[in-house]
Amino acid sequence: MECISVFDMLKIGVGPSSSHTLGPWRAAERWIRELQETNCFEQVQGVKVKLYGSLSLTGKGHATDTAVVLGLLGTDPVTIPVTSIDTSVEKVKTTKSLYFGGKHDIPFDYDNDIVFLREFLPFHANGMRFEAQMANGEVQTETYYSIGGGFVVKEERTHAKENKKVFKKFPFPIKTGAELLAYCAQEKKQISALVLENERSLRTDHEINTEINHVWETMLECMYTGCHTEGVLPGGLNVKRRAYDMHQKLKGGHTYSNPQEWLENIRDTEVKFRQIIKWVCCFALSVNEVNASLGRVVTAPTNGSAGVIPAVLMYYLVIENHDGDFDDIKRFLLVAGEIGSIFKKGATISAAMGGCQAEIGVSSAMAAGALTELMGGNPEQVLMAAEIAMEHHLGLTCDPIGGLVQVPCIERNAMGAIKAINAAELAMDTDPAAAKVPLDKVVNTMWETAKDMNSKYKETSEGGLAVGVNISDC
């Protein structure tokens, strides 16, 4: 049984894409680590990176080349100062030298040693191959695949939608929604309590709380930054940041000096009915504008869909329950993570494999289920909300203009957040016994839809909105 921690579904990293940025970054780190473990690292005199399929077709718009270099430099996406990224990459370009793994310099030609190949490797759409020129003249190669959400695997895997990494066995191993409900009934626990027991098999309560708090603080900081940053997003589309202007209109005359004060001020603001949707959209847009500019976000479950979960959690804290506290945040993220893992095990969270239904659709389902538990829903209603949210994202394509995670990606986070809230409200007002479609059916349908979807609508910028839009005219 595959055991995926909540903190595997909610990773802290750098934008704009978990599969095209965070994944290649982690793959480069992993390659270096494996070279060190086999005592080959010191013998490397040169490296070349080949990017295939979707990583190639939308790689430059997703900053895949930047991510690879940062990984080869030995930097960590969780802790690297994002303001140093441009300087670090520019140094590699100008010196034509790479401080490999943060240990020693080797020659590296940025323009020639990162190769973009349009061909697809048979195993997965996001393939990459690292080549090391060794001191004895041999060339060592290793192939990795970025399968969504920052997960990276090697070629020996047998199914693209499975992750063979197995943790210490969970007391409640869960692959499907039906299994989750059965355990909840057996143990007489809410979903969050059951998931917490699984997490306790991996780490202490103190470690769980610390990591949950780190995830939440990163989300809050990201929203705060997005709401207080104006200008145009990088990449050439000249997309104007909208969260700043929207936030200025909504916040009124309140003053604050940090994200936590900002949150408390919003809670003290009298929010009119028409402003609720605007606030939710503002929260979601702010995150993905930060993501689009190589800022730090939480993959939830991906970078491209990082705005949905924090936006819906903020909705709960500033609209539904002004007394909401850390325990509510913890329960929300535990439930969201578990729902996301069900989709990952039964389908995919990679847009290159499943289109945007695998990113915004899954994040909306995660948020809908989590919100439902906080609003008092039972486990059956939680999964009903997740099903409703995904049901209305089925077939959603991924066709980013210019290969950038901007249009239509940023707006889709706002739409996904609103759908999540709507799905939770519908589930709360529905008898679970009346449900016509179980969560597992919609998970299976999503995977079948993904397999049937034309490849040009799966993060290649070769179809849909991406076709016929001239970036220079934007």
What do you see in this structure?
- The chain is α+β, with helices and mostly antiparallel strands and 474 residues long.
- 50% of the residues lie in helices and 10% in strands.
- The chain is built from 19 helices and 9 strands.
- A 5-stranded mixed beta sheet has the order 5-2-6-7-8. The chain has a two-stranded antiparallel ribbon with strand order 1-9. Strands 3-4 form a two-stranded antiparallel sheet.
- Strand 6 and strand 7 (139-146) form a beta hairpin.
- Helix 11 (259-268) packs across helix 13 (308-320).
- The longest helix is centred in the middle third of the chain and has 23 residues, at 205-227.
- The protein starts with 5 loop residues before the first helix and ends in a 22-residue tail after the last helix.
- The model is unreliable at 158-167 (pLDDT under 50).
Features:
9 strands, 50% helix, five-stranded mixed β-sheet, alpha+beta, globular, two-stranded antiparallel ribbon, 19 helices, 474 residues, single chain
Count of β-strands? 9
Radius of gyration: 22 Å
Mean pLDDT over the residues: 94
- Walk across the major sheet and give the strand order: 5-2-6-7-8
Helical percent range? 40-55%
For the sheet with most strands, the description reads: 5 strands, mixed
Count, helices = 19
Shape, please? globular
Are there runs of 5+ residues with pLDDT below 50, and where?
Answer: 158-167
The N- to C-terminal Cα distance equals 48 Å
Query: Which structural class is indicated by helix and strand composition?
Result: alpha+beta
